[in-house]
Amino acid sequence: MTATAHLDLLVRGGLLFDGEADDGTARDGVRADIGIREGRVVAIARDGEPALPEPDPSRGGRTIDAHGCWVTPGFVDLHTHYDAEIEVAPALFESLRHGVTTVVLGSCSLGAGLGTPEDIADIFCRVEGVPREHMLPMLEQRKDWDSLPGYLDHLGGLALGPNVASYVPHSNLRVEAMGFRRSVEPGYRPSAEERAAMLRWLEEALDVGYVGLSAQTLPWDKLGGDRERSKPLPGTFATWGELRELARVLRRRGRVFQGVPNLVTKLNVLLFLWESVGLWRPKLRTTVISWMDVIADRTVMPLVGTLLGVFRGLFGAEFRFQALPQPFEVRADGMDLVIFEEFGAGSEALHLADLGRRAELLRDPAYRARFLQQWRKIFSPRIYHRDFGKTRIEACPDGSVVGKSFAEVAAERGTEPALAFLDLCAEHGEGLRWFSRVANDRPEKLAKIVRNPGVLIGFSDAGAHLRNMAFYDFGLRLLRLARGEGGRPGALTPAHAVHRLTAEIADFYGLGDGPEGIGRVAVGRRADLCVIDPNALDDRLDDVAEAEMPGFPGLFRVVNAHRGVVKSVVVGGRLAVQDDAPAEGLGGERFGRVLRAGDRAGA
Question: Is the domain of 354 the same as that of 278?
Fold first, then answer.
């Protein structure tokens, strides 16, 4: 039997960017037919070679016409919080339809692999903007695992759309070893037995293929629930010595250390950088969030660039910042947005889950004075610019304010912008919907970020901040930058952009090698790929909408509304998405698989 006999799927005539790079240079695209059988690429006929035969429709064969389109490996989303959604809607369709065929769970020190349902929900929900009243009952009904290895086995039994890999989440690891209350007790250090347990569980997790460990050192992210509500996450109470002990395991095993620096002091990013340095020891692959051109502080971008140059160039650090290839924009219902965790008065309001009690607080004169004083404080650490002139009200029961900024409303009412904001939040609660841009507003600076070899492209937070953000299409945004916008030349070549979204990430996470590896289109490899219309990489990518959350009736989230950009998505050799619609079986059958780093990669 020849390699092309009885093809299951043929991708005909597209411009193939295979994801590969030779000598550090991404390979240019070439016209090609791609033949797929039994989940693998079995033949690639490049331009000038004999065309591949059509599959037999009577045997279920199918041809995808890719003429005029780009064909790429499926994108890798290295930073998601799908730990809740994957349980109720494992197709993860909003990512899949934008060309993402692999997602990584367990980011930012939190996930679902360890802990009781209540522990998991209290760690996860407030930080990631997933309603606890949806997540906790779901976990109580569905949780059938009690260990990190068992969690991967559980994921493997779901009807996965994309492939899935996971970090070991440090906050959950800490709670499991120390107990929920003691893990967030200031000044308490884990005992020798508790440290040994964490190390043992980490080793066991790496044995079965977890890609690494995720850690959190930023105290702005808070616990939900009623037990220790509004305390920082458990991981933030760890000393650097505790993290270094865990990092030694990662270094020895060649796995990834993901971290969130403490943006209050900004100094411990140097510790993450130093951990990644080799010199007299093996390098530690380290990635932290996030490099952005922050509107609130224009010194951040050049400072990060300098640090990357010094540590990667001088010390050979294996370090990458995660970066989004698009403006960082957020939406909020009233005060429900993580930026208000940056200062005490904001956290004080978010501590009150009851909106009636919160409204009373927002009207209290003493509170308003505290809020105003802290909001205006010039030298306080911040990510958000706190300029209410850079906002837009998108919806409100009071239609007279829609389309205006809070500063414009304040001018009409003769008050301070911050006080006008509090007034509208108190009066309308979640009925007040507004928008603001936080970072990456300057195209020329964004182009420098996405070209820098010290970044990994991705930081979508997919599955989290459901009402706040929609970065599911980050891969398409990078391809648009590669084509160029508004008459500007591309920030990088299409081939380089594809490599950054696929093989580069796969290799960093130890998931790119061998026939089971991801990130490349090559004969013998599993077939994960997408077909993209480059002419549709235009202003339609800016469109967002609201849609009901699959698996959580009555819960609406922000999604990317554009259509007609990704023509087809193939996972494991099966057509998963065609013309923005799920293919037959998606959501009920398994398309993707659990990816396991190391010797068990792709098992």
Answer: no
Note whether 208 and 148 are within 8 A (CB).
yes
Specify if 498 maps to a domain.
yes
Q: pTM to 2 decimals? A: 0.95
> By the 8 A CB rule, do 587 and 90 touch?
yes
Sign of CA dihedral 469, 502, 440, 216: positive
How many alpha carbons lie under 13 Å from residue 9 in its C-beta half-sphere? 23
Residue 104, CA distances (Å) to 78, 114, 298, 493 in order: 5, 16, 30, 26
Q: What is the pLDDT of residue 287?
A: 97
Note whether residue 338 is domain-resident.
yes
Give the β-pairing of 75-77 and 100-105: parallel
Residues 346 and 303 in one domain: no
On whether both 165 and 235 belong to a single domain, the answer is yes
Reply yes or no on whether the pLDDT at 253 is more than 50. yes
Neighbours of 272 (CB within 10 A): 26
Would you say residue 19 lies in a domain? Answer: no
CA end-to-end distance (rounded Å), the chain: 27
d(CA 556, CA 221): 23
Domain span at residue 388 reads 334-437
Q: Where are the alpha helices (DSSP H) in 114-257?
A: 117-128, 132-142, 148-156, 170-178, 180-183, 192-207, 240-253
- Which candidate, 515, 167, 111, places its Cα nearest to that of 322? 167
Domain assignment present for residue 241? The answer is yes
Count up the domains in the chain and report the number.
2
Sheet order of strands, 212-216 included: 75-77, 100-105, 163-169, 212-216, 256-260, 285-289, 319-323, 455-457
Average pLDDT over residues 383-396: 95
High-pLDDT (> 70) share of the chain, %: 97
Distance, CA of 581 to CA of 352 (rounded, Å)? 40
CA atoms of 18 and 468, how far apart (whole Å)? 34
Judgement on whether residues 404 and 489 belong to the same structural domain of the protein:
no
**Phi and psi angles of residue 506, each rounded to the nearest 5 degrees, phi first:** -60, -45
Residue 489 reports pLDDT greater than 80:
no
Helices (H), 456-571: 474-483, 494-501, 503-508
- Rounded to whole angstroms, what are the CA distances from 232 to 62, 236, 347? 52, 7, 11
- Could you tell me the two tokens for 277? 């340095």
Same domain? 172 vs 201: yes
The CATH number assigned to the domain holding 92 equals 3.20.20.140
